[in-house]
Amino acid sequence: MYISFIQILDKGEMQIAEKERQAMLEAMKKEIIGIVASKCVHPDTNRLFSADIIEDALDHIGFGPKINDSAKKQANFCIKALSELYYLKKADMEIKVTVNSDWLKFLYDEQKEVIRERKRGLKQ
Prior knowledge:
Blueprint: H1 2-11, H2 18-39, E1 40-41, H3 51-61, H4 71-85, E2 89-90, H5 101-123
Helix pairs in contact: 2-3, 2-4
């Protein structure tokens, strides 16, 4: 056991069993499918696709996960590849901004001033 730790530290790599590799690849594929399913929608209805549909589409294009790349990077690649073959688009991002009431009042007052100045400019 001690020798294998030294080998890993010296060479920077480790031999893994085939079953461990398969388990890692399967877990990564499920993570990628989850990311793609959460980020892709039907362009007309804006409804998300199910993970099963995404998995079938990825199998159809012959996608296989790579252990060396991150799941997010591979998911972005998959979205691009799927959007070329299938009718889907990347979902619009939603952001949530939380501000305290003092800051909100300040922004509201500033915006009212900007609107007044624009109205003055239009009247001239």
